[in-house]
Predict the 3D structure of the following.
Amino acid sequence: MKKYIIQRILLMLLTMFVIMTLCFILIKMLPLPAVREMGRDINLVYAKREQMGYNRPLLVQYVLFLKAVFTRWDWGVGEQMYQALSVTEVMAQKLPYTILVNLYSILIAIPLGLLLGIYAALRKNKWQDHLISTLVMVFISVPSYVYAFLVQYIFCFRLGWFSLTLESLDSAPLFSFRMFRSMMPAIISLGFGVVASLARYTRAELSEVLTGDYMLLARTKGLTRAQAIRRHALRNAMVVILPMIIGEFIGIVGGSMIIENIFAIPGVGNLYVAAINVRDYNFFMALTCFYTFISLASGIVIDISYGLIDPRIRMGSRK
């Protein structure tokens, strides 16, 4: 297992290096936008540009970029947005918004998706199962931004339960109930897809497990149907479902980029879209590496979790 983990980490680092290199080269091939006048801060931007080697060959620029990142953790300063402010400081200020809205969404969506999937599996081929399966297919097929517009129209405009955009920190602290309530439209929009996907996987896996021979054996040994499901069926079904839950976190973080823009959430997703639109090189590279690292690291965690959940998979990896 240790050898496998080391191999995956090395492969992850190699993949990340390739992605960083391609993104750096491609973004640098675009025309360099003019820096807007910022008074005395313009000198700081010009100094940073000179330090990063903007007037040197592309390979030299990339070497200087890697040296600044790995030796000083210096991702530069903003040029087209948040001018002259440190990229890492701006990201640190906005990251809590993204983490909170995704965390709230996952905490609400996962139990609901599991319950719907379990209920559909237990009521297989009945009207409850058909209804849940139909709704699941609809919610999986529709993009999250469509839910966002529906949530805005129904819950924010027609019913007036929530505000259309996020509350500011001046009116509501970040970890307050008022801020949580303000985030609810975005949380609901992000949660639809997670609930549907998790319910589908849970229903499919549990339905297969319930027809296994060991379930019949458990019933013949005197266990009730509820006991057999709780002790055996759910435990075996979680071998596939739990890694899928871990993978959903990454999917929902990626999807939150659009949702953050729709609901004016000042998170890193909104920042990433803005960096692409205005071609702010430093923010683009930092956020690209951020999302790439999360995606690659989650893949390793998912693979390792299979062995931790099911000892047979862990033993098989040692051979």
In short: The chain has twelve helices and no strands. The longest helix spans residues 225-262. The two ends are 10 Å apart (CA to CA). Residues 203 and 264 are 35 Å apart (CA to CA).
